[in-house]
Amino acid sequence: MTTRNREDYLISILRLTEGQSAIKTTELSTFMNISPASVTEMVKILSNEGLVEYEKYKGVKLTESGLHVARQVRKKHHVMEHFLMDILNLDHDAAHEEACKMEHAISDESAVKMCKMFGIPVDDDCKSCKNPCDACLGKTNDSSKVLVSLTPGEHGMISHLKSDDPDVVKKLISLGFVPGREVTMDSKISDKGPRVIGLGNSTVALDFGMASSIFVDVSS
Amino acid sequence: MTTRNREDYLISILRLTEGQSAIKTTELSTFMNISPASVTEMVKILSNEGLVEYEKYKGVKLTESGLHVARQVRKKHHVMEHFLMDILNLDHDAAHEEACKMEHAISDESAVKMCKMFGIPVDDDCKSCKNPCDACLGKTNDSSKVLVSLTPGEHGMISHLKSDDPDVVKKLISLGFVPGREVTMDSKISDKGPRVIGLGNSTVALDFGMASSIFVDVSS
DNA sequence: TATATAATTTAGGAAACCCTAAATAATTAT
DNA sequence: ATAATTATTTAGGGTTTCCTAAATTATATA
Fold first, then answer.
1. Closest residue by Cα to residue B51 from B34, B36, B69, B27
2. Is A119 in Cβ contact with B170 (below 8 Å)?
3. How many CB pairs under 8 A join A and B?
4. Domain count for chain B
5. B122 contacts chain A (CB < 8 A)
6. What is the pLDDT of residue A127?
7. pLDDT by residue for chain A (220 residues), tens digit each?
8. Which chain B residue has the Cα nearest residue A118?
9. Protein footprint on strand D: which nucleotides are under 7 Å from a CB?
10. Shortest CA–C1' contact from B36: which nucleotide?
11. Residue of B178, B202, B207 lying closest to A180 (CB–CB)
12. Chain A touched by B5 (CB under 8 Å)
């Protein structure tokens, strides 16, 4: 069970070893603003716990398990920072500061859920991550699917419309595609082609762009 | 500057003194699952810092300033617990557990923002609080109006979200409707019909229910 | 009221981190 | 290659919290 402190050491080491293979304890000490002596002491402990590889006078680097822990924590940092900046509107410095505390308090599970919920973009951790979380892959928790992605026969209720072009939304509404209505995917010509959609008793054909602006909660 | 630990002591004392005026160190010890000796020791420290009143063999109670700190922390606990349960779908026990850690990591400011964001109902702390936060009063900013009530062309900043259905809030957040963001009422189909809303560069159509859960500070 | 029991506090110690100063190893310059 | 300099580690201490065992005070019983 790694403590807050140990986690801080690990992510700092991760940060500094990016690119290089190992760093000197003095570098770490400067980076973390902790005396060289304390760093040496801690690094020996982390080494005993199998989280880092350390050779006297040579340097430190993370082991596999240390890397795993560090990445986990850093991912938590990113999620929290995102939450604080984009949802609670803190400025970057304040968000970073606070995320440094939160990253140690949030559970793995909650962090993943938050990633999913906010559809957090790929963070650098996941570039080299063996099993990146959904969030890092760009998925979101929003259960609704874009209409174009439905297969013929699938149906559901329109949850919302979203487009960069206001005219598209208005046009859709004027066609009767309003949130709450039932739609069915009838058929499609091609992947990027128009879609034939069942809407109430009528059937409407929409081009790909329009159908990409409709989000539906699919019924099973 | 109170540490995590001290904060834990304070909220435990708050919890146990509710109703009574003072509690015995042994009670605290049982409640916190910490040895009586350690509690006595800590209580002396808290007393020196002016956070509790303590008389040997008599008992402990919070001072004004201790009460203030304890309430602040407990408010944070409630907000986090709410977030974890209603937004991230943790069950109560897990949420409580995790909130016990988060409550020490989140800043006062962020906690207030979260209260506002979720329009958290009055929590018991604020009943006797001298300056309860807006969120606790349930009065979410007089000046804010429900989004559905805006007339086309009106715009403003989202002040908070509030709905009886946690899924609605979640969905709104995942769509980008978070406090602080600018929204414009574009058009409405009918009184109880969906609304077309400008959000950043995109335009979204939401059904009446969703749009009724968004509160905005209208700009003049 | 005197004493047995229970509650509470003091004493002494341990673990996690931090620090400064002194010692030692590594590096650089002559 | 050797001395001077710099980097790193060891030594010795300090703080915060925790614990167990022993001492003390309060309470209850006879």
1. B69
2. no
3. 114
4. 3
5. no
6. 47
7. 789 999 999 999 999 998 888 999 999 999 999 999 999 999 999 999 999 999 999 999 999 999 999 988 998 998 899 889 878 888 889 999 999 999 999 999 899 888 777 666 545 454 444 444 444 444 444 678 899 999 999 999 998 898 889 899 989 988 989 888 999 999 887 888 899 999 988 999 999 999 999 999 888 7
8. B174
9. 7-12, 16-22, 25-26
10. C8
11. B207
12. no
- Mean pLDDT calculated for residue range B30-40: 97
Last residue of a domain, one of B104, B120, B137: B137
- Contact between residue B172 and residue B210 where contact means Cβ atoms under 8 Å apart: yes
* Same-domain status, A163 and A117: no
8-state DSSP, A150: P
Instruction: Find tokens 């398990």 and name the residue.
Output: A65
Given a contact cutoff of 8 angstroms between Cβ atoms, the answer to whether A76 and A133 are in contact is no
Q: Is residue A46 domain-shared with residue A10, that is, in the same domain?
A: yes
Query: Is A41 near strand C, with its CB below 7 A from some atom of it?
Result: yes
How many residues belong to chain A? 220
Cα distance between residue A200 and residue B33, in whole Å = 62
Structural domain boundaries, residue B88:
67-137
Amino acid at B59: G
Instruction: Determine contact, residues A73/A34, Cβ cutoff 8 Å.
Output: no
Alpha-carbon B76 to chain mean position: 5
Nearest to B125 by CA among B176, B215, B62: B62
Report how far residue A100's alpha carbon sits from residue A97's, in angstroms, rounded to the nearest whole number.
Answer: 5
| Residue count (chain B) | 220
Chain A residues touching residue B179 (CB < 8 angstroms): 87-89
Of A112, A137, A162, which residue is a domain's last? A137
d(CA B23, CA B21): 7
CB proximity list for B163: less than 8 A, separation 6 or greater = B169, B212, B213
pLDDT of residue B167: 84
Q: Are strands A195-199 and A182-188 parallel, antiparallel or unpaired?
A: antiparallel
Nucleotide nearest to B29 (CA to C1'): C8
Residues B199 and B151 in one domain: yes
Shortest-distance nucleotide from B41 CA to C1':
C9
Say yes or no for a CB contact (<8 Å) between A118 and B189.
no
Q: Is A94 helix (H, G, I), strand (E, B) or coil?
A: helix
Mutate to test the interface with A, among B1, B87, B102, B157 (most CBs of A within 10 A): B102
